[in-house]
Design a protein that fits this description.
alpha+beta; 4-stranded parallel beta sheet; globular; 7 helices; 15 strands; about 300 residues
């Protein structure tokens, strides 16, 4: 049996892979963080292969819970998440002898370490600095002109009945409105670009897509549906560096972000070990979901 561990029952990428698994007559089961605890653990004996595709923790307190202040709500939610984290870790432990595609122990990458390793293999990296004061920010901006900021960790949307808020990479503009001191933040030089490149790395194969973004736009995700996306061939030199970086990071799959600057240089931005690959597969007709299913089929037919 192939066991698919996913973030949500609403994630469409695993569903496309499951369609191919059905086509190849593979037995599979899909679990996510909010329903796996109801699964009979005796079924683990039937599992041969595990595909780890994102994994969230169960939400915190139900809305009906009554506490006397906001601080207690935050504390109790943190406690619930820690409990669920322990349960998830034990569940992964029970699966340790299985064949894995993307093991949870190898996907928690540190973006700063990744940038150091990418620079070490020869990639161009836009200059950056970790900054926590207005003075440092002013000095960095005076040196580099336009600068951007983005999160170092995984961020989750904020939602309420009134709105839904996503966290995007954003240009830093109105410095005067910023406090003299603020939490340490990742600040990077803005690179004028010709296009952006999303690369999916899988089983030592490389599949790239060009995203035709406006050269002044900071984060294409705001307008992704309206942008032209076409297959893109990286040079052998760049692809060799990708292979070396992924081997260094011990990643067998992942999505890498690059940009082609107006100076005609390729700049490395980041790698996401559990990257959304359907956005590359569909516009470019790469049929990546089929490739993933075939790989899972091969693993499933091996003895673990």
């Amino acid at each position: 049996m192939v066991l698919l561990l996913t973030n949500s029952q609403h994630d469409t990428t695993p569903e496309r892979v499951m369609d191919w698994l059905s086509y190849y007559k593979q037995d599979f089961k899909r679990l996510h963080a909010e329903n796996y605890s109801n699964w009979n653990l005796k079924n683990i004996e039937k599992v041969s292969t595990v595909w780890f595709w994102r994994w969230g923790f169960v939400k915190g307190l139900p809305q009906a819970t009554v506490v006397d202040n906001e601080k207690n709500i935050i504390t109790l939610n943190d406690n619930i998440r820690d409990e669920n984290k322990m349960l998830s870790q034990y569940f992964m432990y029970l699966l340790k002898s299985k064949n894995w595609l993307s093991h949870p122990s190898s996907i928690d990458v540190n973006k700063l370490i990744v940038l150091d390793e990418a620079k070490a293999v020869g990639f161009n990296i836009p200059e950056y600095q970790i900054i926590n004061s207005k003075k440092q920010l002013q000095n960095f901006k005076e040196k580099h002109g336009r600068v951007i900021t983005k999160s170092l960790g995984n961020t989750f949307p904020l939602s309420s009945r009134a709105c839904f808020t996503m966290f995007y990479t954003k240009e830093v503009t109105n410095i005067e409105a910023i406090s003299s001191k603020f939490p340490s933040s990742f600040i990077q030089k803005f690179i004028p670009k010709t296009l952006e490149i999303r690369t999916f790395y899988f089983n030592k194969e490389i599949f790239s897509m060009a995203i035709m973004t406006p050269n002044s736009e900071v984060d294409h995700r705001k307008y992704s549906k309206d942008l032209r996306k076409v297959p893109y061939q990286l040079t052998k030199e760049v692809e060799d560096k990708i292979h070396l970086l992924m081997e260094t990071l011990n990643l067998e799959t992942g999505s890498l972000d690059f940009m082609l600057g107006q100076d005609n240089l390729i700049y490395f931005l980041e790698v996401n070990p559990i990257g959304q690959f359907s956005m590359v597969s569909e516009p470019c007709n790469y049929f990546l979901e089929k490739k993933v299913a075939l790989h899972l089929k091969t693993l499933n037919e091996k003895k673990h």
